[in-house]
Q: What sequence folds into this?
């Protein structure tokens, strides 16, 4: 979005990687990255800005004009997995429903005999509910979230990320003790959070901890506006699934497949570059070699 003295411009990239939508309040218009922001201010959702479109809001209202040559749509899949709020709808896909479908697909791919299903809140909650419902396993609040702590994977240092995990979540022993637990999270980036969570749940008395992930392994960095981590710091780029399982200490580990993720979203017009390295917008000077991955004691 660009503000001028008497105009507001909204531009969306030709692939539609990042979301942008239009709202209206009476005779006034507004722009937001997610529809939930419009709900917050009492605006009516009008539509998404189309890939490659430029919209102009001025004293005469809302105007649209072509800005860029359209290419194949590649909306960011990770918006639906993690970044977006569950009460948002982007490009006609509701985030919460998409995550619930991811849980159902996980149940089809990896049914586990367990006593309870728990989520890593909040982005894992809808997937955990979908998984529990599909298999008829009770859902419980095994991890309690501190609402005043932000996201941990984007903290700049390892020490800050580890402190953030301890401040952010606490295990509910009354729910977990002597249980075979399926724990569902949205992703594993560096492994820091997952390692601490598995240890936390086991120390709370869980007999088994089976870790299910509602995204494929994050093995490549994002160059389209999201600062995840350098490639050599992404655990899935350096270790296979069994190696990651051993590192985080889970009894089993399963990632949703790309095919199941696309079924959950109901479209293949999404960017999966952080999972498979196929970047829809060309990236130059990428270092595609593997670097040594330093395994620190969990």
A:
């Amino acid at each position: 979005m660009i503000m001028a003295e008497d105009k507001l411009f909204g531009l969306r990239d030709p692939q539609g990687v990042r979301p942008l939508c239009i709202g209206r309040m009476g005779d006034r218009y507004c722009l937001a990255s997610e529809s939930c922001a419009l709900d917050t201010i009492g605006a009516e959702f009008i539509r998404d800005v189309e890939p490659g479109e430029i919209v102009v809001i001025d004293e005469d209202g809302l105007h649209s004009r072509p800005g860029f040559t359209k290419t194949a749509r590649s909306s960011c899949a990770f918006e639906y997995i993690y970044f977006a709020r569950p009460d948002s709808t982007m490009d006609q896909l509701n985030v919460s429903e998409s995550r619930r479908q991811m849980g159902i697909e996980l149940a089809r791919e990896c049914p586990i005999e367990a006593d309870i299903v728990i989520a890593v809140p909040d982005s894992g909650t809808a997937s955990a509910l979908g998984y529990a419902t599909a298999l008829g396993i009770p859902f419980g609040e095994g991890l309690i979230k501190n609402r005043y702590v932000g996201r941990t994977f984007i903290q700049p240092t390892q020490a800050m990320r580890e402190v953030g995990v301890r401040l952010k979540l606490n295990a509910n022993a009354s729910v977990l003790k002597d249980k075979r637990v399926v724990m569902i999270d949205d992703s594993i980036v560096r492994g820091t959070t997952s390692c601490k969570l598995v240890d936390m749940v086991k120390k709370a008395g869980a007999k088994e901890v089976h870790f299910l992930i509602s995204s494929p392994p994050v093995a490549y960095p994002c160059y389209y506006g999201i600062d995840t981590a350098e490639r050599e710091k992404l655990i899935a780029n350096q270790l296979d699934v069994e190696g990651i399982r051993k590192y985080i200490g889970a009894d089993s580990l399963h990632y949703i497949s790309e095919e199941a993720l696309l079924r959950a979203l109901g479209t293949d017009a999404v960017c999966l570059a952080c999972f498979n390295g196929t970047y829809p917008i060309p990236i130059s000077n990428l270092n595609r070699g593997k670097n040594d991955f330093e395994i620190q004691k969990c």
